[in-house]
Amino acid sequence: ACRALVDELEWEISQVDPRKTIQMGSFRINPDGSQSVVEVPYARSEAHLTELLERVCEKMKEYGEKVDPATHRKSYVRVLSHDGTKMDLSGVKFDGDVTSSLKFACESIAEEYEDELIEFLSHEAENVKDRLCSKRT
């Protein structure tokens, strides 16, 4: 669930126009009449990541559960591709129980680890999935 969440967040971030910016800083007027406002890229800004975390778990209904035939390990895989290409869905269980439990797990992780997710993703940290999903949680 954590890995699916990070995959979705990283995909959403990659879809933002790199030229889009947001104003950050204080909107107070300094004694000299200037303002301490800075334009930063919108993608990976705290405002952008907070907004994504509020709606990313809705994407979990596009996932199914796949059991590895050799190891019997369960994993969540996308059943709808982002670009509309056909996907190999052999051995993928896709039903309401799977998607609702995945969505619940996603919401729990997003809520409990919101600060870490924002911290890692705002700095384009490498291996966010491993660092967050294996070590931190």
From TrEMBL:
Q: Which Pfam families match?
A: DUF3456
Please state every residue range assigned to the domain named DUF3456. Answer: 1-136
Kindly list the GO CC terms recorded for this protein. endoplasmic reticulum
Tell me its family. Belongs to the canopy family.
Q: What is this protein called?
A: CNPY2 protein
Originating gene = Cnpy2
